[in-house]
Amino acid sequence: MQVGDVLRKKNARVVTIRMNETVGIAARLMRANNISALVVKDVVRSEGNTAAGMFTERDVVRAIAEHGANGVNVKVSELISVQRLVSCSSTDSLDEVRHLMNVHHIRHLPVIDNFSLAGVISMRDIAAAVDQITTGAPQAA
């Protein structure tokens, strides 16, 4: 099974945040959308539909641990590494993506096809797809 197969079965909406927004705004976005990761986009509009990084619940915890209550005012750009964005494509196999996640100790990957953001796949998405394959149960969206 490929990443694209999983993406076709889930909500296509990807929640993003710009690099110059704060941890507080990111946390509110994650809470409002009941998600644990956001795709970070650069503030330059010419970048198009590309990802600059990922911002996760772990980044919120790190901001609070390092800055106390003022962590909510820290810029997202201060907490992500844009030099090492780990991503996959919709043609990658679930085994390849699971390996990438294990090697990099991450649970969410932006899916990038032709330099454009196609979606996000999570470890939970992979587990649900594998369960569907092994049990024949329908996959949750």
Structural class call reads alpha+beta
Radius of gyration from the CA trace? Answer: 15 Å
Shape: globular
Distance between the termini: 16 Å
Low-confidence spans: none
Describe the 3D structure.
It is a single chain. By secondary structure, the protein is an alpha+beta fold. 37% of the residues lie in helices and 18% in strands. The chain has 5 helices and 5 strands. It has helices at 3-8, 23-33, 57-67, 94-104, 123-135; strands at 16-18, 37-41, 53-56, 108-113, 116-122. The protein has a 3-stranded mixed sheet with strand order 1-2-3. A two-stranded antiparallel ribbon has the order 4-5. Strand 1, helix 2 (23-33) and strand 2 form a beta-alpha-beta unit. Helix 2 runs antiparallel to helix 3. It is globular. The mean pLDDT is 88.
Entry summary:
With 141 residues, the protein is an alpha+beta fold.
